[in-house]
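Researcher: First entry.
Model:
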Amino acid sequence: MKNHIKINGKILQTNKRFSQLKQSQKEWIATELFNLYHDKMKERRTTRKLSAHHRDEVISSLYKKNEDREIWIPYHEVERYAFSKITKIIKSFKKKYPELSTEIEAEHVGKKDKSL
């Protein structure tokens, strides 16, 4: 019982793996991760991987939202899942926001040309 806590009279397992979650919980986490990561990409004006600091902000905010929804899963499981989906998230950003992606890419090319 060391990996369980009692909340509101319910015993909850706190060391679950991502695969042990219900399908609806998995889908919610996936959707929320994509939305948070896309929002951060828009904010940072990039179509590439976020830096470690910004990526950790996204993962922390996702973990906080999981806690608010009472999805009990360890932080390292959320982090591992997020790392496994980063490439897919970036590709989906380019498909979901094609105009914005080309605009951002053009900005980055313009910055490179000015520095030369």
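Researcher: Second entry.
Model:
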Amino acid sequence: MNQKNEELRDVCHEALVCLNKPGNSAYDEVKAKLEYVIASYNNDKNPVGLYEIGNMALTALEEISSEKPRKVKKALLKDLKESLLQEV
């Protein structure tokens, strides 16, 4: 189970990198929350926040992808969806 949580943390970090690209300022709240839960997970290894905010990040990335498909890698969306399906 811990390995799956580590994978979710890594894919959430990839999502954060993608959201930090120029032109995504509408998602500043999601970015801030994602930074927080990644740091929190690194400290206490409790993945609950990763799942909650990971879903918010997925929604944001899907919105960006629907407007500008080349801004979000399909593999990132796929990996994030798969990681979130393996919820605690």
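Model: Note on the second entry: The mean pLDDT is 93.
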